């Protein structure tokens, strides 16, 4: 049946233990070291990313503040320009209104003087009209 050879078993045991020690030193320890280094590198990168994301939040807040300040400043500049233009337009309207009032007064004065002249000329020619009317009535 089965024969147990003690020296062969001891040789296989010694070979197995030697192989375990060699694999541990050459394969498993470097592999475990590599995985630990990789975990440490990932953790370090995550910390750096968190630090950068904190900076981006701060920078985004600053950018939003700058944008809102710029919008407010643009609105105030726009409002100031509108107010200036309204003032300028009002002064132009007032100037034009004064010019038109002056022209209107001059026109009325001229019209009144022409009316007086016409009235005077009609009054001066009134005797001629009376005579011509008398002549026409006498012909009837």
Task: List its salient traits.
2 helices, 95% helix
Summarize the structure.
Helix content is 95%, strand content 0%. It contains two helices and no strands.
Output the number of helix runs: 2
Poorly predicted segments: none
Structural class: mainly alpha
What would the principal axes of the Cα set say about the shape?
Answer: rod-shaped
Supply Rg. 58 Å
Fraction of residues in H or I helices? over 70%
The major pleated sheet works out as: none
Following the backbone from N to C, one meets helices and strands in this order, namely HH
Question: Mean of residue pLDDT?
Answer: 91
Give the total of beta strands. 0
* Cα end-to-end separation: 181 Å
Secondary structure: elements and pairs:
Blueprint: H1 6-124, H2 126-139
Describe this structure in words.
It contains two helices and no strands. The relative contact order is 0.03. 95% of the residues lie in helices and 0% in strands. By secondary structure, it is an all-alpha fold. The protein has helices at 6-124, 126-139.
């Amino acid at each position: 049946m089965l024969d147990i050879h003690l020296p062969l078993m001891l040789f296989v045991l010694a070979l197995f233990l030697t192989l375990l020690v060699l694999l541990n030193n050459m394969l498993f320890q470097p592999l475990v070291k590599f995985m630990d280094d990789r975990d440490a590198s990932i953790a370090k990168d995550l910390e750096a990313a968190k630090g950068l994301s904190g900076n981006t939040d701060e920078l985004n807040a600053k950018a939003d503040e700058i944008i809102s300040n710029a919008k407010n400043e643009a609105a105030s500049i726009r409002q100031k320009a509108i107010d200036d233009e309204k003032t300028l337009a009002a002064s132009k309207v007032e100037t034009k209104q004064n010019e038109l009032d002056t022209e209107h007064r001059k026109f009325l004065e001229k019209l009144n003087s022409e009316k007086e002249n016409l009235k005077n000329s009609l009054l001066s020619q009134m005797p001629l009209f009376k005579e011509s009317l008398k002549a026409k009535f006498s012909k009837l």
